Amino acid sequence: MSYKAWFQCSEGCDERYELNETIYKCKKCGGLIEVRHDIEKLKHRSPESWMRLFDERYRRTKWPYGSSVWGKKEMVCPNVANNNVVSLYEGGSNLFWAERLGKTLGIEDLWIKQCGNAHTGSFKDLGMTVLVSMVKQMISEGKEIKGVACASTGDTSAALSAYCAAAGIPAIVFLPKDKVSTAQLIQPIANGALTLSLDTDFDGCMEIVREICSENNIYLANSMNSLRIEGQKTVSIELVQQLDWKVPDVIIIPGGNLGNVSALGKGFLLMKDIGIINKLPRIVCVQASKANPLYQSYLKGFKEYEPIKAQKTLASAIQIGNPVSFNKAVRILKMFNGVVEQATEDELANAAALADRSGLFNCPHTGVALAALFKLVKRNEIEKFEQIIIISTAHGLKFTDFKIKYHENKLKEVEPKYINVPIELPPKYEVVRKTISDKLANFV
Q1: Are 117 and 88 in contact (CB under 8 A)?
Q2: Which residues does residue 101 pair with via DSSP β-bridges, in sequence order?
Q3: Which residue numbers delimit the Tryptophan synthase beta chain-like PALP domain (predicted)?
Q4: Fewest CB atoms within 10 A around its CB: which of 15, 50, 328, 393?
Q5: Which residues are registered as beta bridge partners of 343?
Q6: Rounded CA gap, 333 and 43, in Å?
Q7: What distances in angstroms separate CA 24 from CA 159, 175, 191, 292, 324, one per listed residue?
Q8: Per DSSP, what are the bridge partners of residue 35?
Q9: Quick check: 169 and 139 in contact, CB under 8 A?
């Protein structure tokens, strides 16, 4: 069966556009557009048949279906020919049973979805494979595209540069000067991207990149481009697949530009529409307290919204004061009995460090989500018998400076509770033996 997807205005006027059009907002009303699928055609196949097909493809070698994104191609981007797919075998990231951490909270069914176990170290790969593949498809159809550009706080630029390098397409990244980690900065440089460091914040970079892309035949790769959402929504499908096609009770996800929240919800709604699942989870979106416009709006029942000037936060990837996908995220949160929480610098750093002691290695953004979990459990807003999923968005190795400074007690506004530093000793057996014995006696 031939499947098809298209762009459609998400703000109510329902204007349609082809996926190979260079368009990010509705031409009629100016609203954000999103990718829509022919649900009736998808329903011609039974839910059981879809689940069996996805399981048969999962992490196998037939191109391009071994990718956990392209293994669901019919529901993601059927418009791209297989020979134009740009894939680095994304998805299929570990669902970590956080048994030991859960026990400290009295929770038996706590899981960490480690989306940072990816080619470039973050969940952004899931969306970028779709976007860059569509660009390659458009170029093959004769569209003039000189390059692909994004504003980024680090992870988006890494994903864009890697996928463009694999496709042989020029990448241009706009980074806020001195606001990304060294590990994040080096990725686009290593992949040969044109890297522009602007003396502003993410929102300032976003303003410039929009202008550049509006009139220079350069394709925009930020999350306002809803092709990325199609890849990111596969996190929902993959989660359910990894749980033997059962829906968890609660999912906690950090939010910055808020595309990930809308993507998460979109994946669950699609599965419900075609009958794979029959219920929806609660979604908890968490922001850093220094970049919390969604949280501030939530406190007012979403009746008011004001962009803010985001302050510097350890959770640099979500240091965004004017999120592009605000309206989409609010719609999803309302449909999913959603909660919005925030985390201070002290809370996120200590939450990440505590979880690290149970075998994880968390980025600060995962620390934001974990801090919210601790709060919600303490307030009995999450029941201890519920199945809870934390979305870990990036690999901790991209934030080693954050880790080192935590254990050296050099982070501002943080009182580290779980410091662990090397013990310097002389090379004498008895001194070493006694130190080990003393430390093991107090091991927790």
Answers
A1: no
A2: none
A3: 86-393
A4: 15
A5: 288
A6: 26
A7: 20, 21, 26, 25, 11
A8: 7
A9: yes
Closest CA to 58 of 48, 49, 47, 69: 69
Dihedral sign (CA 49, 82, 24, 69): positive
Query: From the centroid of its chain, how far is CA 299?
Result: 24
pLDDT tens-digit map of 170-217: 999 999 888 887 888 899 999 999 999 999 988 899 899 999 998 889
Phi, psi for 75 (deg, rounded to 5): -105, 0
- How far apart, in whole angstroms, are the C-alpha atoms of residue 161 and residue 172? 8
Where are the alpha helices (H) located in 72-223, listed in sequence order? 73-76, 99-105, 124-140, 155-167, 182-190, 202-215
Radius of gyration of the chain (CA): 22
Cβ-proximal residues to 34 (8 Å cutoff; 6+ apart), any chain:
7, 8, 10, 226, 229, 266, 328
Is residue 12 pLDDT above 80, yes or no? Answer: no
* Tokens describing residue 178: 């001195």
* Backbone angles phi and psi of 8, in degrees to 5: -145, 140
At 324-374, the pLDDT tens digits run 889 999 999 999 999 999 999 999 999 999 999 999 999 999 999 999 999
Residues contacting 101, CB < 8 A, separation 6+? 110, 354, 355, 358, 360
Placement of tokens 């998400």 in the chain: 10
CATH of domain 95-121+230-407: 3.40.50.1100
Q: What is the DSSP letter of 362?
A: B
Domain positions in the chain are 95-121+230-407
Q: Contact, 141 vs 20, CB < 8 A?
A: yes
